[in-house]
Design brief:
The chain is built from 3 helices and 6 strands; from the N terminus they run βαββαβββα. It is of the alpha+beta class and about 130 residues long.
């Protein structure tokens, strides 16, 4: 996708070890760590410059950000990655990935739409 442009970020989460988490975040390309104080303590989130990274710049090796973040998430917590992007008007997509210490769940906006259309009796629809 040559002209793909996205907006992406995460929700906030509680982490097991803030120091180790921050070191890990420093290894992610074009990622900004955000922090928020709450009644549960300090919470952390991520902002991405364009899309959610899948390659590290220094070695150009693909990695799985969702698997890597799992060990940092505190028990009982989750983090949700959201990306919405487009290639002009030809492709508009959105997805979310919910990550817990033990689960990774991917949700595509297209899938949610298809499921809802089935619930509505499959009215005619031309895919975006």
């Amino acid at each position: 996708m040559t002209d793909y442009s996205a907006t992406s970020r995460t929700s906030y989460t509680n982490v097991r070890d803030p120091k180790k988490f921050k070191e890990w975040v420093d290894s992610l390309p074009e990622t900004v760590l955000i922090e928020q104080n709450s009644e549960d303590g300090k919470l952390y989130g991520l902002l991405f410059d364009n899309q959610i990274p899948v390659y590290r710049e220094d070695d150009d090796i693909q990695f799985d950000i969702y698997q890597e973040i799992q060990s940092h998430i505190s028990d009982g917590w989750s983090i949700t990655f959201i990306e919405v992007g487009a290639t002009g008007y030809d492709l508009i997509q959105g997805f979310a990935v919910i990550v817990t210490p033990s689960e990774i769940n991917l949700i595509y906006l297209d899938q949610v739409i298809e499921e809802r259309l089935k619930e509505l009796g499959n009215p005619f629809n031309i895919r975006i």
